[in-house]
Design a protein that fits this description.
By secondary structure, the protein is α+β, with helices and mostly antiparallel strands. The chain folds into three domains: 2-248, no CATH class; 256-332, Alpha-Beta Plaits (2-Layer Sandwich), CATH 3.30.70.1380; 338-400, Ubiquitin-like (UB roll) (Roll), CATH 3.10.20.300. The protein has helices at residues 14-24, 28-36, 85-93, 99-120, 130-133, 135-150, 180-189, 205-214, 269-280, 311-321, 369-379, 383-400; strands at residues 2-7, 43-53, 56-65, 155-158, 161-162, 167-170, 173-176, 193-194, 215-216, 223-231, 241-248, 256-263, 285-293, 297-307, 328-332, 338-346, 349-358, 361-367. The two termini are 24 Å apart.
Amino acid sequence: MTILYCDCFSGISGDMFLGALLDAGLPIEHLSKQFKLLNLPEFQGVTAEKVNKGAFAATLLKLEIHEHKEEHDHPDNHSSHHRHLGDIRSLIESSGLSDAVRQTSLKIFQKLAEAEAKVHGSSIEEVHFHEVGAVDSILDIVGVTIGLEFFNIQSVFSSALPLGTGQINTQHGLLPLPAPATLELMRLAQAPVVASKATVELVTPTGAAILASLAAFHQPDMKLIQVGVGAGRRDLEWPNVLRLLIGIQEEVPGTHLEIETNIDDMNPQIFGHVMAKLFQAGALDVYFTPIFMKKNRPATMLSVIGRKEDEKSICDLLLRETSTLGVRVKPIWRHEAERTIRIIETCYGQVPVKLKILDGDIIQATPEFDDCVRLAEQAGIPVAQVLQEAIAVSREFLNQA
């Protein structure tokens, strides 16, 4: 699978991350076209400039927005327009962006909002999210998720984060560094931190929110295929850049795990909640098996298929969210067919089709059922009718094979 590693030796901000994605090969035309699907009235355009940061050639992101704003070093702080989380949620959900981009963007904003609310002692909907509502922060976060989708990134990893000291001027007055929301996001992610002599902001709330929502904090094994270098706006004693390493992680025997536990004393309503949480934690599959335990008690065996790197988070979740006192873990491996998604045009609208590929041949084409349901509801017809049409159009892929 394709993975991405963030080398944050000089910190991370949203614009540095997006600049590095552009440097790695994300076409700026694609990014601009996707940004327009947001229907964000302030957005005018996006450009990128090649700059030198010490010994590094890097890409500096430039967003063009038509509102007046003061110039600061990081875009997380320099927009004068504020939006609440609900405003941002409505903006993204009503956009023409893909489901994956919308869901990932909202996940990052939710995490950032939770941290802001916690440090300011307010509820998520009550607090004024200055950084969350900034136009350029919206574009940074959505742009990063667009880039991750473009490169088909399936897992994100990160180095330790430089802590630093000093103070920063914010909408809430003078605050210590790292900013309170940034520090809370580091805590939520249990991110490793290292000392830094910097007295300026290296890790912004936006950058911390991206990593807290998406990243595992360790260096992965991979076959390196691309490197992107994003420039920070400040000039420091060292090259102020973020390096992104994109590579292929081979799945070999033993990299997958089966995690199981038997439960006979828990409210069955909790199982559905636990399943949803497990998928959020990275589980590849979750299933329940009815069993009988000691004293002939009916019980449920909860089984999870996951990756080795997600073992701790999955086991911790099972121990925390269920009544079990222990879990069993064993290595497994699997053989996989290659898969890819194509978009087809039906008389009811566009439908994504999952193609199954074996030895270079397309052997199966399966329309995405949820999209067929959506189109059926829009047209007021049975879903089977849309599904049959999508299956018929999908046969063209099998004929090509």
